[in-house]
Amino acid sequence: MASNPTPPAYVVLGADLGLTRYSGAPSAVPLSSADSWGTLDLQVVAGGQGGLKLSGDIRDAGAVRGRDNLAQALVLRLLTQRGALAPLGHPGYGTRLVELIGRLNNDTTRNLARLYTLEGLNQEKRVAKILDLSVQPVDGFPDTISIGFSVLPLNDKDPLALKLEVNL
């Protein structure tokens, strides 16, 4: 009997439209991450690849696959308020990070951010293990926290590390 080989990570981690790259929002964090609430937009890339030959500056929607898709999915999950997708049949999707808006940037708030981030990361079935999580204040921005984490994706031996900033 033949054994079923483990599918490569890019198959397991999927593909989707690119949403979190090059949002143009000011941030100290480079994007494979996001900068805060409401700064995500559709990624635009050079278009006209295939099909009819078109002239001029052609733009198209970007796509992400594999590890990039998982990274985007984690950022979107963390920045989506839990329950916001209930009308679409996903009442548990998202996190409670939005509940931290308006709070002081202190140990209590950062500990809640850790808890809410862990809850969100544990929802993602494409994450085999959470390896690291840190929540820190951002120098010069008293109302901003930096959430950094690394996870081990399914069927992948290399950790995926991300960082995002959240305005309180």
Write the layout of secondary structure elements.
Blueprint (H helix, E strand, L loop, with lengths): L8 H5 L1 E3 L26 E3 L12 E3 L1 E3 H14 L27 H17 L3 E12 L2 E13 L6 E8 L1
Antiparallel strand pairs: 1-4, 2-3, 5-6, 6-7
Notes on the protein architecture:
The chain has 168 residues and is α+β, with helices and mostly antiparallel strands. It has one domain: Nuclear Transport Factor 2, Chain: A, CATH 3.10.450.40. The protein is built from three helices and seven strands, in the order H-E-E-E-E-H-H-E-E-E. The strands form three sheets. A three-stranded antiparallel β-sheet has the order 5-6-7, with helices on one face. A two-stranded antiparallel sheet has the order 1-4. Strand 6 and strand 7 form a beta hairpin. It is globular, with a radius of gyration of 18 Å.
Mean pLDDT: 78
Q: What overall geometry do the principal axes of the alpha carbons give?
A: globular
CATH architecture grouping: Roll
The domain count comes to 1
What is the ordering of alpha helices and beta strands? HEEEEHHEEE
Radius of gyration: 18 Å
What is the CATH topology descriptor?
Nuclear Transport Factor 2, Chain: A
**Low-confidence parts, pLDDT < 50 over ≥5 residues?**
21-42
